[in-house]
Specification:
This protein is mostly helical. The protein has a domain of about 100 residues. Helix 3 packs antiparallel against helix 4.
């Protein structure tokens, strides 16, 4: 019985409830205030048009920040990719320095070609000949200096 009464009470309340509509309250300035005209002008200019301008500015800021984040992420991933490539080159050079040096002395060879391809450098006969002519300049360099010198030669 109590459940039925409770249900009827809730149903009656819901059915008799009215929709609450938002009210727009506007400030009114004191007509005796010395800067009244200035305030009225400011108030008149603060219509929905300014709200729209604020929305546009807000959207621009959001878009700008999204672009900045995207650019930062892309730059970060490119830098990470370059770091991995640089590490791969150094690792390959470290593991195969003797064979690469022999290839340079011969003016050709699979280890040298692979390193040049990893560095996105030309592997044509002219480039291989330049590297061979610079054998003495390359043979005693540290790994990073060796890679820099190869890039400079080609």
């Amino acid at each position: 019985m109590h459940n039925i009464l409770l249900f009827l009470l809730i149903a009656t309340s819901v059915l008799s409830a009215k929709t609450v509509e938002p009210k727009v309250m506007r400030a009114q300035s004191n007509n005796n205030h010395p800067h009244n005209n200035h305030h009225n002008e400011d108030y008149d200019n603060s219509s929905h048009a300014h709200d729209r301008e604020d929305d546009i500015l807000s959207s621009s800021v959001e878009a700008s920040s999204e672009i900045t984040v995207m650019v930062t992420i892309e730059a970060s991933s490119e830098a990470t990719s370059e770091t991995h490539q640089g590490n791969a080159r150094l690792s390959y050079l470290d593991d195969n320095r003797v064979q690469i040096t022999q290839n340079i002395a011969q003016g050709h060879g699979e280890y040298l070609i692979t390193l040049l391809q990893m560095m996105n450098l030309s592997t044509d006969d002219k480039s291989l000949e330049k590297i061979q002519k610079n054998f003495d300049n390359l043979v005693y360099l540290s790994h990073p200096d060796f890679l820099d010198k190869l890039e400079a030669i080609i």
